[in-house]
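A reminder before we start the practical. When you read a complex entry, don't treat the lines as separate problems. The point of joint prediction is that each chain is placed relative to the others, so the output describes one connected object in space. Small molecules and nucleic acid strands, if listed, are placed in the same frame. In the example below there are two entries. Take a minute to note the order of the lines before looking further.
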Amino acid sequence: MAYNVLIVDDSPSIRLVVKKVILMSGFDVGEYFEAANGKDALSVLEKNWADIILTDIHMPVMDGISFFKEVLKHPIMSSIPVIFITTEGRDEGIEETRKMGARGYITKPFKPEEIRKVMVEILGEPYGEGEDAPNLEGSDF
Amino acid sequence: MLQTLKEVIFSVFETMFFLFPEVVENEKDLPDMPKDYFKSTLRLNDNKWLLILLGSEKLAEAMAKNFLGHVGPVDESEIADVFREAVNVIGGNFLMKLGNRDHVSLGVPEVEKCRRFPGEETARDFCGGLSFNVDNEFCGVCIKDIHG
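Here is the predicted structure of the whole assembly.
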């Protein structure tokens, strides 16, 4: 099954690196969507379906928390799993997003394996039995 | 506080950019002051502090190449974006390491490419904070108390 992925970050470099990590992880990706802030991400979701969202928190125009709150209000979008990838690594911040319903929380700088691990928890293993999963350990971003 | 900042710089540069900064205590041991350099800034803790990251153009380019995994050239917008993200990650990790249990307020980072003015000959002239040698390129980091 191919998954549509939405990456929300005001840094094009972070979006590119997250996309590379997902490709390296072996997930079957249908379409990649990108947005530079929560407002643009909502516009993307109005026209397209995403199976998973990876979003930053600190962004101009609309931050990741406000974006997530808007997603949760929507009857259909609210079912999309959301992973936060952010510089804010306080336990309180992580707990706050978990209480809101976030499915994962990754702090920058991250290791590719961390993204893969959280995505596997949500979407399942991208490789079938007998196939070798890529070894992402030892690489950082 | 500077010790914490130093540890964060080591960790972020190693993890994100595969680079290993060395602290330079004596100005005479610093790499040549760059003519062109990148400067990124981030307001921290409800605008109380301003975190400033400076790096020579060559260093910023190396950071971008390593982070993006590019073998070929990187364009200036990519270099600027990666340098902007660097101060963002440094700021977030710095506050986390300080153990700030209150509201952690990170601003939106900014970046600009600068040219050294006459008279800015030393690291102290640049920012007055920590100075690093990263593969023979200059890097400076400091925190300014905006209200102080």
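Discuss with your neighbour: The longest strand of chain B covers residues 36-44. What might explain this?
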